[in-house]
Batch of 3 targets.
Target 1
Amino acid sequence: MATAPRLPADLSREAALARDAADPLAGFIGEFTLPEATIYLNGNSLGPSPSAALARVNEAATEEWSRRLITSWNRSGWFQLPYRLGDRIARLIGANAGEVVMTDGTSINLFRMVAAALALRPDRRVIVMEGSNFPTDNYVVQGLIATLGQGHVIRFAEHDAIAAAIDGDVAVVVLTQTHYKTGHILDMAAITARAHEAGALALWDLCHSAGAIPVDLNGCNADLAVGCTYKYLNGGPGSPGFQFAAKRHQADLVQPLTGWWGHGAPFAFDRDYAPATGIGRTLTGTQPILSMVAAEAGIDIAERAGLDRARAKSRALGALFQDLVAARLGDAGFELGSPADPDARGGHIAYEHPQGYPIMKALISRGVIGDFRAPSSIRFGFSPLYLRYVDIWDAVEILHDIMMSGAWRDPAFAAVEAVT
Ligand SMILES: *Cc1c(COP(=O)(O)O)cnc(C)c1O
């Protein structure tokens, strides 16, 4: 690090080191396999690999797949994985055993769950969504509406305008609790209550919540939910997502992707579909077992860390980053793209900067990995399980250096890659 900045004592590098020394979650960093000289601020997009996940995949491949072959569906518990891991995820999101299955990806699960919600409200045609949500949610619902051909429409409303958009025409509100770009957390309890008051259902996307903040689906009376495990739950690239259906809806739940894994007796090989009685009816077909077993390690870490402790540290890391950016980069053109109150946002923070893309590229070249979201957001995620306070301090110092030296102007950083 170049020159020592003049900062208030509580924002010094020494203070950051002292916080690390007192951090009850500090030991978890040793459970991850991370590259050298890297400050990984992108766990909100792809969590890093737990070492136990790598060992578990190796074991599943060599022992369960190679040696036990097809007997592993029984002997290694493969067939039960969606349920067993679903029950573990349930504890992290305020659901009960038998209300969650791990399966497929979020986009697929959303298709299934929105269709199920519309079938529960057959005389209503409006779906309330936030237009600024992660686009796949919009695309999935648009495709579903076109497939159904029953005249459903999406009523887009943002943040504070959501409650007023919910009326007696609404079948379901489909919202992401923690916004993918701004990190803004919607009030799940209040919006769900408002939906129920209007006779509508509430379906929550927990992609940026699961593993990042304590979630209480049943405490909020949520009806349906989906989410992914490759972000804050560190499940691995493309690890299966999950879906939740409250117990009270399960007997009436009809979903369109009816396959043999959702059948009440899959090995009876009956000609006609007859759904399983519980959450199992939301399954479709054979699951990616190696990806599933990989994901269990991250779920296990989240359980042991405890979401209250994890959230408290993540909040503190984000607040430190925010304070350091304000102190060190106040005149560098960064505008906060997230709620200023750390309690009002999830595990990441966004800044708007017209040169966001090359700045992020320059940061990555220096080992500080965040990401860019068009048109001008750069995001920094604060996963508490493998980040230290001093990492946050060093990251802002490197950002300061890139801005002051003009290093980001190197034309190499302007070339846009396929995945930002
Ligand atoms: C990450 C994310 C997804 C991902 O969907 P996939 O089907 O896993 O690609 C969906 N919705 C939201 C809100 C997300 O943040």
Target 2
Amino acid sequence: MANAVLRSFLPIFSVIFFLTTINVASAKPFSKTVSPSSLGLKKEKLTHLHFFLHDILTGENPTAVQVASAATTNTSSSFFGSVVVIDDLLTAGPDVKSKTVGRAQGMFAFASQSELSLLMTINYVFTEGKFNGSTISILGRNAVFSGVRELPIVGGSGVFRFARGFALLKTHSFDVQLGNAVVEYDVYVLHY
Ligand SMILES: *[C@@H]1O[C@H](CO)[C@@H](O)[C@H](O)[C@H]1NC(C)=O
Ligand SMILES: *[C@@H]1O[C@H](CO)[C@@H](O)[C@H](O)[C@H]1NC(C)=O
């Protein structure tokens, strides 16, 4: 009987314990000024990354899949309203079998009613050398039929903490039948 009563209170005890734990953790001040050196930040540097992205829509192992579209997307010459999620391979050379340097993971939406123009919201995660596990995040407009497109880097992680900069995108090859594309990236990123 007493045990049963105790057991019925157990969830409450665990909630109280949980709240106590939270309270201890939140004893840190909400904000304070710290020196950049406390995070090991020294001199900002500029890194140039050069690689190729493989956007595979059609084939045995597509790395770009349409996940949504509007009722009117299939009547739009610019695919307006279509949303595609990607996990695209990044390689050092234009050949898909050249050295892998990372992946581009995120999504793009066809965001123009009059031309092929994408809203890109994509994280680039690198696997090469000192950049292994570090990411940069790009949010920008990609008018895919323009010669060179410039997209802003809005942040990063790992060695790319505090990242800012831009990426220049140039279509290296495009298979009109399959929709598959290889895109050359020149990335200029400021970081510590
Ligand atoms: C567009 O898609 C809708 C729904 O999937 C379909 O009913 C319609 O026939 C399609 N229109 C064209 C022009 O393909
Ligand atoms: C990158 O890091 C992962 C996990 O830490 C490790 O398994 C992998 O071998 C590393 N790759 C390279 C190319 O250093």
Target 3
Amino acid sequence: MLLNETAKETDMVKRKEIRIYSEPAGGWGALKATGEALALQGVAVSGAKTLLRMNQPEGFDCPGCAWPDPKHTSSFEFCENGAKAVAWEATANRCTPDFFAAHSVSELTAWDDYDLEMAGRLTHPMAYDDATDRYRPIEWEDAFAMIARHLNGLDSPDQADFYTSGRASNEAAFLYQVFVREFGTNNFPDCSNMCHEATSVGLPESIGVGKGTVLLEDFEHADAIFIFGQNPGTNSPRMMSDLHSASRRGAKIVSFNPFRERALERFASPQNPVEMATLGSTQISSFLYQVRVGGDVAVLKGMMKAIVEADDAALAANLPRVLDIDFIDAHTHGIDALLEDLRNTSWDAIVPQSGLTRADIENAANIYMQAKNVILVYGMGLTQHHRGTETVQQIANLALLRGNIGRPGAGVCPVRGHSNVQGNRTVGITEKPSPQLIDGIERAFGFRPPVSHGHDVIAAIDSMMHGDAKVFVALGGNFAAAVPDWVRVQAAMRKLDLTVHIATKLNRSHLVHGKDALILPCLGRTEIDIQADGPQSITVEDSMSMVHASGGRNQPASPHLKSEPAIVAGIARATLGPDSHVRWEHLVESYDRIRDAIEIVYPIFERYNERIREPGGFHLTSTARERVWMTPTGRANFLVFEGLDEDPSHDDPDTLRLTTMRSHDQYNTTLYSHSDRYRGVFGQRDVVFMNAREWQKRNVHPGERVDIIAVSKDGIERVIRGFKAVEYELPDGCCGAYYPEANPLVPLHAFDAKSRTPSYKSVPVKVVRSAAVKDTQRAAVEGDQHAYQ
Ligand SMILES: Nc1nc2c(c(=O)[nH]1)N[C@H]1C(S)=C(S)[C@@H](COP(=O)(O)OP(=O)(O)OC[C@H]3O[C@@H](n4cnc5c(=O)[nH]c(N)nc54)[C@H](O)[C@@H]3O)O[C@H]1N2
Ligand SMILES: Nc1nc2c(c(=O)[nH]1)N[C@H]1C(S)=C(S)[C@@H](COP(=O)(O)OP(=O)(O)OC[C@H]3O[C@@H](n4cnc5c(=O)[nH]c(N)nc54)[C@H](O)[C@@H]3O)O[C@H]1N2
Ligand SMILES: [Mo]
């Protein structure tokens, strides 16, 4: 059966088909996809062994998402996309000096992102040679010296930016920030600025901590789980086992998403023998509400309004209150202003903004009110908006109304992205150092770092655009493809004096190089990391603040690789010279020493080395979970969102809100294939989803090619051309396309004012039929229309 299916799918990919996917998420389709990913990367045999060590007490932490594992002590949990993340790292392909000798940078620039990464693991440090337009091998010491020369030649340390992507370990990220601060700047643009910054800024104002308040075991005690703008079946698949069991024991799950994401509807657990044998599945969401893109605030305010109305009615009828008045009195501040705002917000205003009916919103509110314990989950569908921070705060408001924070089975659950993005933040990757961090570094190393705030992603880009920035160093990631407006950003990056990328695989950012450029290849999570004191483990913090150790067992992809901490230490030693306050080599000889230093800077890591050796690691306490509110009022704050619309300046009926999201077969800018199985897209990514009514309005037939034009008042033309029209039952007034292909449409100035998170999920656009549709495309169109029937 599986072989037949594979042949059918290969055919669909070849024919670039669009068709409705009728299977549940997970199940045999996921097992098949896992096998194929391993085979494609040539890791079929050793890969299986590698997978068995994933998320084991003695193994490595999955390099995929940040969803926790059941105490990191249990047996292997199946996850299709975790397997792909491992396969892409443990690939048999190698990107060697011969590869770079054979292909000039100009030639590689024309390659697809998928093909760049398929070249395999980087094996040697490489430096750009202008004369031949090629990267050529360089010795590690010469590379470090080149960086030192550039950095020490700057007029000011603030002319350099130091990017971090959230896969770096606590040890690497900590050393990196100490180095950069001793060098003299707080310029730390990081992937979190494009991701959960709205959480990091919004939740502290509400509940005094910028992280979630639940642990995995809370999912076993929740009576209702609400999921806003998050796609767990694709982006945190291990969460599906928690949702699967919650649903089976009768908890209500309610999702809000413009897309009917398949895993939010139905899921077959590969660990459930009965479901697998009978081709059965479990319904996940009791209700999946297709909210309009950017309509979440209207939904959240509507739900709160319904709760307040129910409370008024209960009060009038002398029935028990719906609001948790004891909690509100004892723990919160600002309820009166919130109640007034909700009473002044009419249903007539809420309903059209939300894209749902009043009955839908009231039904969701009823489920919320009837549940004793509620978990509120959210992802990028909430944070990457024009008023993302304030939207996140409405999640906290909703939770606080019924005391759903700080007791078992209840809480706020922002689902983090990269596997250690939360840990990076905890150990000091921030452009706004706190007094505790400054004092801590002085305590540990005897120097006082700069206090003035540095660059986040938007400020780093501004600095490049103005020609102020000269050097860009990246600890992982793919900045040039992940940022908004990348056509313009890439042009600015090409004017830099030096670009440095610490990376495992070749990507777009390495080709968008400065006058000098280095690619420094590092070990991955799956690989053995041997330093002077023997094999080392690193540590990471997951989405629920559990910290645990991770140690690879695979042989490194090349003998020339260094670990991330060793590379950072090499750069630091070369740049800061013998007068540095830090003994870089000494720290890297044993990562226990780095952890001891982390503990001095951050006392919450007390007994760090001891506790990571305990099975399952340890939990970094969240004060809000204990109902201790670290806010200026000393209480949890209800915060009012004025109005309902995140950006009322775009109410022209012809303008659509474009959201950009991930396919099932990508990890951020890394593509696993060009297909998106659950949304029924095969062999292509240049597509735009919209409902039939909106396509008809524009006189476009599914399968035809369209241009997408950003609506912006700055006079700059931002357009992507020739995208294929796909019919998908989205709410009116919105459309969707893939990240990073659609990023050129996101204007640099379109970001949330409070957190400066780019508004990747609410881009005002117009969509028009492409000027010239060639006959060959017409033929393809007819083929596609066929596939629809
Ligand atoms: N396999 C895999 N795993 C990953 C990643 C990956 O790329 N691949 N990326 C990692 C990272 S860094 C992150 S941050 C997370 C991202 O994980 P998610 O937060 O799930 O990210 P997205 O896929 O961008 O978008 C989430 C959902 O928001 C919906 N959405 C779009 N606009 C709106 C809106 O206005 N309102 C609502 N309610 N929903 C909306 C989309 O339809 C989509 O289902 O996953 C992490 N894990
Ligand atoms: N339009 C739009 N844009 C978005 C988003 C969106 O939803 N829509 N999402 C945003 C979000 S949430 C995020 S987090 C950013 C992601 O932005 P980034 O984190 O910068 O991007 P990634 O694609 O995750 O980076 C992939 C690269 O990391 C390198 N890498 C992989 N493993 C390792 C390792 O172990 N060590 C090192 N040093 N390098 C490694 C490889 O070279 C790989 O090519 O993109 C943002 N951009
Ligand atoms: Mo992210």
